[in-house]
Amino acid sequence: MKSVFKKIALLFLLIVAFQASCQQIYDFKVTDIDGEAYDLKKLKGKKVMIVNTASKCGLTPQFEELEKLYKTYKDQGFVIIGFPTNDFLSQDPGTNEQIKSFCQKNYGVTFPMMSKITVKGKDKHPLYEYLTTKSLNKLEDNKVKWNFQKYLIDEKGVLVRVVDPSTSPLDNSIIQWIKQ
To answer: Mind listing the pLDDT tens digit for each residue in 79-92?
Structure first.
């Protein structure tokens, strides 16, 4: 009987150690589009979609769908965080102020937008290093393919799915994930 308890105790310790080694989005602080600090710890307990955005891309109309999704589910513990980037064919060359104005004027964006960052290459933002590296996110290695790639984060701050840029934010699989 003692050996069973020892095995259970060891298993418990391994689980605790594994959970402690799993980085979460709550470990990151970013800067919002107005230049203010934004601690991702404030998202604890919420489902989160992180999406890299661009103002001059063929997928830019996804802002409208993102805003619709956000307005529909924001009161149910869901938030979208937009990260402008100029990494793909210079499709977001503007300043943070210009990007903010464009998003509000053209799409009525009310979900949190962050300052422009780099999502690929040697200057990749640490949050995107986490999102794209399996040894950090414990899900998968992936590359940001294009603007509007979506990362779904569960209520515990753990990456659970990477969604292709061309997939609509209103895709049924995303909506079902939010609702579950």
So the answer is: 999 999 999 999 99
The CATH class of the 24-179 domain is alpha beta
Per-residue confidence (pLDDT) for residue 174, from 0 to 100: 98
The residue written with tokens 């600090």 in the block is 37
- 67 neighbors 110 (Cβ within 8 angstroms): yes
Domain boundaries, the chain: 24-179
Helix, strand or coil for residue 97?
Answer: helix
The question of whether 57 is a catalytic residue gets the answer: yes
Here the tokens at position 57 are: 């891309």
Catalytic residue, chosen from 22, 27, 57, 168, is 57
Give the separation between CA 83 and CA 57, rounded to whole angstroms: 14
Extended beta strands in the chain, E state: 29-31, 37-39, 47-53, 78-84, 150-153, 159-163
Please list the rounded mean pLDDT of every run of 10 residues in the chain (180 residues).
58 44 83 97 97 97 98 98 97 96 97 98 96 95 98 96 98 97
Residues pairing with 32 in the sheet: 114
Three-state secondary-structure class, residue 180: coil
